C-alpha cells in the first residue's frame, strides 16, 4: 500500500510537471523519457494492485482461519475449565475414598479375624456333616436292599402260591385223566393184541412177496447194467472206427488234391531228390500232422472219461 501511495504521488507529480510544462510552452512535444517512466510506473501500479488483491484474499482466508482457531481455543478453554473442575471433584472424591479405604481396611482386619474363626467352625461342621451323610447313605443303601429283597420275597411267595394252586388243579385233572386212561389202556391192549396177530400174519405174507419181487428186480438191474456196458463199449468202438474212416477220407482227399496239383514228372523229380520211391513219397504225404495226432489223443481221453462217468453211474444206486 505504501508503494502504491508512493507511485500514485510520483504519477501526480509527473502529471503536474507535464501540465506546468504545457502551460509554459504551448506546443513542445513531451519527452520520451517521461513517457517511459509513466508507463513503467503504470505497470508497477498494476502489479502492485494485483499483489494487493492477492494479499487481500490471503488476509481474508487467514482471518477466517484465525476466527476458527479462536473459536477452537474458546471451546478448548471451556473444556479445560470443565476438566479442571472435574479434576478438583475427582481429587476430593479420591481423598474421600482414601479415608473410606482406611476405615474399610480396619473393618476388614476385624472381619477377617471373625471370618477365620467362622471358617474353622464351618470346616468342623462340614466334616461332621460329611460323616453323618456317609452314614445316612450307607443306611439308605441297606434300606433299599432290604426293601428290594422284601418285595422280591413277596413276589416269590405270591408266585409260589399261584403255582401251588395251579398244580393242585392240574393234579386233580391228571388223577381223573389217569383213571380214564387206565380204563382205555386195558381196552386198547385187548384190541391191539387182536389186531397185531392179524397184522403179523399179513406182514409175513407181504414180506415173502416183496422178497420175490426184489430178487426179480435185482436180476433185471444186473441185466440192464451188462446191457449198458456192452452198449457203451460198442458205441466207443463205432465212434473210433468212424473217426478213423473220416481221417482216412480226409487224407485221401488231400493226397488226391496233391496228386492233381503235382504232375507225375514233378513227383518223380521229388522222389529222385529225396532218393525215395514214389510209393514211399505218397506215404510221406499221407503222414498225420502233430495237431491232428494231438486232437485224436484228446478225443480218446474224452471217450475214456465218458466211459468212467457211465461206470460211476452204474455203480451208484
From TrEMBL:
Record field: transmembrane: none
Organism superkingdom: Eukaryota
Positions of region (Disordered): 1-37
Comp. bias intervals (Basic and acidic residues): 1-18
Gene3D superfamilies registered for this protein in UniProt: 1.10.287.1490
UniProt GO cellular component terms: centriole; centrosome
GO process terms (BP): centriole-centriole cohesion
Coiled-coil positions: none
The protein's name in its UniProt record: CNTLN protein
Amino acid at each position: 500500500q505504501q508503494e502504491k501511495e508512493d507511485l500514485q504521488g510520483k504519477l501526480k507529480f509527473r502529471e503536474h510537471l507535464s501540465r506546468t510544462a504545457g502551460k509554459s510552452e504551448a506546443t513542445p512535444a513531451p519527452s520520451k523519457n517521461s513517457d517511459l517512466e509513466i508507463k513503467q510506473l503504470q505497470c508497477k501500479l498494476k502489479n502492485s494492485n494485483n499483489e494487493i488483491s492477492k494479499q487481500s484474499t490471503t488476509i481474508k482466508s487467514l482471518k477466517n482461519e484465525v476466527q476458527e482457531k479462536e473459536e477452537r481455543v474458546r471451546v478448548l478453554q471451556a473444556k479445560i475449565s470443565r476438566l479442571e473442575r472435574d479434576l478438583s471433584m475427582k481429587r476430593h472424591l479420591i481423598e474421600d475414598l482414601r479415608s473410606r479405604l482406611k476405615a474399610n481396611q480396619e473393618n476388614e482386619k476385624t472381619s477377617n479375624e471373625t471370618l477365620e474363626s467362622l471358617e474353622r467352625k464351618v470346616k468342623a461342621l462340614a466334616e461332621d456333616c460329611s460323616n453323618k451323610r456317609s452314614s445316612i447313605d450307607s443306611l439308605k443303601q441297606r434300606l433299599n436292599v432290604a426293601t428290594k429283597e422284601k418285595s422280591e420275597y413277596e413276589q416269590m411267595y405270591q408266585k409260589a402260591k399261584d403255582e401251588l394252586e395251579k398244580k393242585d388243579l392240574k393234579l386233580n385233572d391228571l388223577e381223573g385223566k389217569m383213571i380214564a386212561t387206565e380204563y382205555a389202556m386195558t381196552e386198547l391192549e385187548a384190541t391191539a393184541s387182536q389186531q397185531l396177530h392179524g397184522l403179523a400174519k399179513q406182514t409175513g405174507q407181504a414180506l415173502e412177496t416183496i422178497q420175490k419181487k426184489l430178487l426179480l428186480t435185482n436180476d433185471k438191474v444186473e441185466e440192464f447194467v451188462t446191457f449198458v456196458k456192452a452198449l457203451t463199449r460198442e458205441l466207443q468202438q463205432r465212434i473210433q472206427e468212424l473217426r478213423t474212416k473220416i481221417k482216412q477220407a480226409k487224407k485221401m482227399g488231400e493226397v488226391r488234391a496233391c496228386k492233381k496239383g503235382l504232375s507225375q514228372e514233378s513227383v518223380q523229380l521229388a522222389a529222385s531228390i529225396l532218393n525215395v520211391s514214389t510209393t514211399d513219397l505218397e506215404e510221406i504225404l499221407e503222414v498225420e500232422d502233430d495237431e491232428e495226432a494231438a486232437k485224436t489223443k484228446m478225443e480218446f481221453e474224452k471217450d475214456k472219461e465218458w466211459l468212467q462217468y457211465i461206470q460211476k453211474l452204474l455203480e451208484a444206486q
